[in-house]
Amino acid sequence: AKHSCMDSRAVAWASPGGEVSLSADTAPHATLAVSTYADRSLREERVALNRAEARVTALARERQQALEASASAGHAAREMEERLDQLWREERETQPAASLAAEREALAARLGEANAACDSARLEAERLAIELSRASAELEPLLPRQEEDARLYEAAAQSRIQREKLGSQREVAARDAAQATEEAAAAERAERAERQLIAARDAHVKAARRANESHRRIREKVEELREEQAQRTARRAEAVLQLKASTAEAAAAARGASERRAEALARREEKRAAEKVEILEKGGNPYRVFRERDEAARAAADRAKVEARLAANCEEMHARLGKQRAAEAQQQRRVEREREAAERAALEMTSVGSQVKSESYMRRVTKTGATLLDPTSRWPRIEPSQHVTMKDWKFGLGLGKDGDILDMMADKYPNTAASSRAEAAARAAALPEPVAARSILADPVASLTLSPLKSASARALAEEARERGEPADEVVEPELPGLWDDGVPAPPGPPSPLKGATLSVLEKRYMAAARQRQRDNVVVEQTVCGKTWRGPAFVPSEPVLEFLDFEAGETYVKTFALTNVSNSFNSFRPAAFPPEVASFFLLEHQPPGRMVAGRSVSLKLTFTPKLGEDIDTVLLLLTHTGPMSVPIRCAPKKLAVLLQTSALHFGTVVLGESASLTLEVKNSGALGTAFAVSLQRGAGDAADEAGKAVFEAGSGGTITLAPRSKATVSLRFTPAAAG
Q: Is 444 a residue whose pLDDT tops 50?
């Protein structure tokens, strides 16, 4: 354990063997190892000790190396001496040779060098031994400090052992805790698995119950289907039997009718036979008489059928016209509502409309119905709760007794106000009430039916002031009559366009200037970068809006776009169509407001013709730079048959031969027709009538001409005589 004392600045390390105290300047390392370099007084000694130890170690290592070199040199010298002796023996035994003499001389030179190196290494080792002894002598005074450091290191080692022991104990505890946690988790998992098993068993039982119930319902449904099928089969068999019976009855009725018709014809034939004899005796034509009688009867029957069909058509036409008139009235009402909404929106965009809207809001929310609360600007402060009726927390709890709130709720819910007046009065009477409010709750019914132009609190305060003989407060009675109360006549002066206060001279001047600005802003001259725009500000996607080949009673829709081609922002507002065609057209679009140059907006024009006549009108648009119009042309389905040539020239035709020409007939309209070609001879065609020429036109039958198609007729000329 580490113990620190700020007063003595002493650090102690406790170990199982005892306690070692260090000086204040000696600090342990971050790894709990003792460092003596932190003590400035011992730093030089420690450095000298380390240097001396390093020098002793180096000298010992050098001395050892020198000894090893001396031993190696001695070994080499001994080998050379042995070789030299061997050479002397060989030289004595054999005759001298120049090669042996040279080798002996070289070996003798090398031996001398080896002896010199050995002597030098021995001298160096002796010198290093002397220096080593000196360094050891210098190191001896510093050894006690090394022993003290060893003791400190031993203490730090004991502390580290204790620390590691504590760490191992913590690890064992953590392992035991982890094992306990794992065992608890395993127990929890086992318990959860048991619960899941129980839940699965319960679910299985419920599922089996549901399956049995489902199977029971299916069996009941199958029984119902079988019973229904049996009933359907019985009904089908009964229907077949009824059909057979009705077929037999119909056949019998048909046979009876045929027999009665045959009998009637037989009686008519007998009657006509007798009548025929009488007519023949009179010299008449019985067949003509009978034929005229039959034709007259047939004509009468046809006339009755036509009259019945005409009556049905008239009824259908009247019904269709009634539906169409109802649809037109509904559309007219919708157009009128949209027009009124557009006018209201346009009015709200102006200053006058904004002021009217503000005054309407003030009359609706203020207690006195005033449009201005402080017209003279004399009040130091305006409290909103004194001029506007607001529900407080007492009203939500059923404790409210403010007459203004009761009046507001009675006006908002008139059906429930009468039934709750007695209950509200009883509840309010049971509570302590201020003196100023007693006059309000004295007659709760009267307090609930006050005039909307005066609030209950204002009336109560004025009544109390009159009872005390004091003048009414200026909040209750307005300083300027006519500003708050509509029942008080306004002071004489020119009528104001706004239903509010009389305008002062300055306000009238401002109003006139605003109106003039509004008139000036209806159509303005657009100038951007010195360039003034001239001409239509918007260009339609179609130069002419055409509704071609329409049918009366149908509805046609055309969508087109308007693009702002002016130099800057612009806007447009569609004007009303002319009265004679206003019920035929309906323009729908989302007002885009101010449009930047180059922007487009989509419009939808609906055309519902009532008559099959040509219509040429315009769509008038009021833009910021002036009015413009888009042409509208409507044409119903027509028949337009034209001949491609006005004269046919057969030229010279040889007698006995024929010449053929083709006549092309074109129908450029939307209605089809049928035509036939016949030859008409004029007064100058006497030669043809005399049989000099024969003209043949096609097959001589009727030719059908479809809409927007062509037909060809072949004409053949065959001269019957020369001329």
A: no
Range 632-637 average pLDDT: 90
Helix (H) or strand (E) holding 15: strand 10-15
DSSP string for residues in 211-253: HHHHHHHHHHHHHHHHHHHHHHHHHHHHHHHHHHHHHHHHHHH
User: What DSSP element (H or E) covers 350?
Assistant: none
Kindly report the backbone phi and psi dihedral angles of residue 370, in degrees, each rounded to the nearest multiple of 5, phi listed first. Answer: -90, 150
679 or 579, greater pLDDT = 579
pLDDT winner (highest mean) among 1-5, 230-234, 580-584: 230-234
Give the tens place of pLDDT for each residue, 61-90: 887 888 888 788 778 778 877 877 777 777
Tell me the two tokens of residue 594: 């101010």
Tell me the range of 28-42, 466-480, 642-656 where mean pLDDT is highest: 642-656
The distance between the two most distant Cα atoms of the chain, rounded to a whole number of Å, is 206
Q: How far apart are CA 516 and CA 623, in angstroms?
A: 18
Cβ count within 10 A of residue 607: 19
* C-alpha–C-alpha distance, residues 629 and 612, integer Å: 24
For residues 12 and 218, give the distance between their C-alpha atoms in angstroms, rounded to a whole number.
91
Give the integer Cα–Cα distance in Å for 713 and 700: 10
pLDDT at residue 521 greater than cutoff 60: yes
Q: Long-range contacts: 174-181, Cβ < 8 Å, 24+?
A: none
Does residue 353 have a pLDDT over 80?
no
pTM above 0.85, yes or no: no
What percent of the chain is predicted at pLDDT more than 90? 22
Asked if residue 623 has pLDDT above 80, the reply is yes
* Banded pLDDT at 425 (limits 50, 70, 90): low
In the three-class reduction of DSSP (H, G, I as helix; E, B as strand; rest coil), residue 348 is classed as helix
Q: From CA 215, how far away is CA 208, in angstroms rounded?
A: 10
CA distance 575 to 619: 8
Pairing state between β 545-550 and 572-574:
unpaired
Distance CA 715, CA 695 (A): 7
Distance CA 81, CA 675 (A): 155
d(CA 262, CA 257): 8
CA dist., res. 577 & res. 534, Å (int): 25
For residue 180, what are its two tokens? 């306990």
Residue 604's DSSP bridge partners are 559, 588
Residue 588 contacts residue 559 (beta carbons within 8 Å): no
Tokens of 636: 């119903």
Model confidence at 417, pLDDT cuts 50, 70, 90, reads low
Q: Which two tokens stand for residue 655?
A: 């007698």
Residue with tokens 């077949």: 240
Handedness of CA 164, 165, 167, 168 (dihedral sign): positive
User: To which residue do tokens 């030229």 refer?
Assistant: 651
Euclidean distance between CA atoms 541 and 578, whole angstroms: 23
Token pair of 10, please?
């002493």
- Provide the strand spans (E) within 224-360: none
Q: Reduced to 3 states, what is the DSSP secondary structure of residue 587?
A: strand
Q: Given this model, what pLDDT does residue 327 score?
A: 93
CA nearest neighbour of 639 among 615, 662, 665, 610: 665
Do 653 and 659 touch, CB atoms closer than 8 A? yes
The CA distance from 657 to 693, in Å, is 11
Q: What are phi and psi of 527, to 5 degrees?
A: -130, 120
Residues 6+ apart with CB under 8 A from 290: 272
Angle at 568 between CA 565 and CA 572, to 5 degrees: 65
CB-based contacts of 723, cutoff 8 Å, min separation 6: 687, 692
Strand partners, 574: 621
CA distance 11 to 145: 19
Query: Which residues sit opposite 641 in a β-bridge?
Result: 667
- How many Cβ atoms are within 10 Å of 630's Cβ, its own excluded? 21
- Angstrom distance (rounded) from CA 328 to CA 348: 30
pLDDT over 80 at 693, yes or no: no
